[in-house]
Amino acid sequence: MKTRNVYARLIILGVSCAVASVGVAGTADCWVDIFDEPNFKGIQTRIDGPIELPHLRNIHDIDWNDVIDSLEVGPGAEVEVYKNENYLVPEGPVYHAPEIKAWGNVDENFRAGVMTFTANHRVHHLGEYNFHNQISSLKIKCVR
Ligand SMILES: [Ca+2]
Ligand SMILES: [Ca+2]
After folding, report:
1. What distance in Å separates the CA atoms of residue 77 and residue 142, rounded to the nearest whole number?
2. 46-55 burial by CB neighbour count: b if 16+ within 10 A, else e?
3. What are the angstrom distances between the C-alpha of 141 and each of 6, 16, 82, 117?
4. DSSP string, 62-113
5. Separation of CA 144 and ligand 1 centre (Å)
6. More confident of the two residues 18 and 63
7. CATH number for the domain including 105?
8. Is residue 15 part of a domain?
9. DSSP string covering 27-69, please?
10. How far is the CA of 65 from the centre of ligand 1 (A)?
C-alpha cells in the first residue's frame, strides 16, 4: 500500500512537470539529435521537446531501442536518458556528465541507469558513459 502511494505521487509529479514545461516551450532550440553510430553518423533523427518517451521503439517509424551511440543536445534543451524503458532506474546514484568525465576512465562496474546531458552537449560516443546501444527511454526538457 505504501509503495503504491509513492508511485502515484511520482506519476503526479511527472505530469505536473510536463505541464510546467509546456509553458516555456515553443523555442526552436529545444531538441535532441540522436544517431545510431558514434561521431554523429549513421541514421539520424531529431526529437523535438518538451517530450517524454517511455520507450523508443517507434520514433519516426524507426526502432531506436538500444541503438543510440551518439547524440547532440540543442541549445535550449536538456535530456535525461535511461537504460530501461519507462524510466526505470536500478538502485544507485544519478551521475552527471561532468562528474564522469572528471573520473577519467569509467569504472567497468559503473552502472548508472540514468544520465542527464545539458544544453549544447555533444556526446560523440556514449560508450564513454557505458551508455552505448542501451538507451531505452528519455525525457527532453526545454530550459529556456
Ligand atoms: Ca548503435
Ligand atoms: Ca536498454
Report:
1. 5
2. ebebbbbbee
3. 23, 13, 14, 11
4. B--TTT--EEEE-TTEEEEEESSGGG---SS--EEHHHHHHTSSPPTT---S
5. 30
6. 63
7. 2.60.20.10
8. no
9. -TT-EEEEEEETTTEEEEEEEESSEEES--S-BTTB--TTT--
10. 10
From the CA of 135, which ligand is nearest? 2
Question: Considering the domain boundaries, does residue 38 fall inside one?
Answer: yes
Q: How many angstroms separate the alpha carbon of residue 134 from the centre of ligand 1?
A: 9
How many domains does the structure of the chain reveal? 1
Q: Which structural domain, as residue segments, surrounds residue 110?
A: 29-142
Peptide bond between residue 38 and the one before it cis (omega within 30 degrees of 0): no
- For position 19, what pLDDT does the model report? 45
Cα 69 to averaged position of ligand 2 atoms, centre (Å): 12
CB atoms within 10 A of CB 105: 8
All residues at 6 or more sequence positions from 79 whose CB lies less than 8 Å from its CB, including other chains = 32, 49, 71, 73, 116, 117, 138, 139, 140, 141
Rounded Cα distance, 29 and 22, in Å:
14
pLDDT, tens digit, 9 for 90 and up, residues 61-118? 999 999 999 999 999 999 999 999 999 987 666 667 777 667 665 544 445 788 999 9
